[in-house]
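REVIEWER CHECKLIST
Item 1: Sequence provided? yes
Item 2: Single chain? yes
Item 3: Sequence as submitted:
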Amino acid sequence: MRIVEMRITPIAFGDPPLRAAFGLHAPYALRTIIELVADDGDARA
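Item 4: Structure as written out by the authors:
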């Protein structure tokens, strides 16, 4: 099985601001979904 394709999808979703010693963090959280596709068509995230 070989990896033939890689898809990277950045996402942002609402996250309530939290108070910390350095102030408030952003009102959203950033994440990245990485999906790998093999030569047999199998896709995994």
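Item 5: Key structural point noted by reviewer: The chain has no helices and five strands.
Item 6: Recommendation: ____
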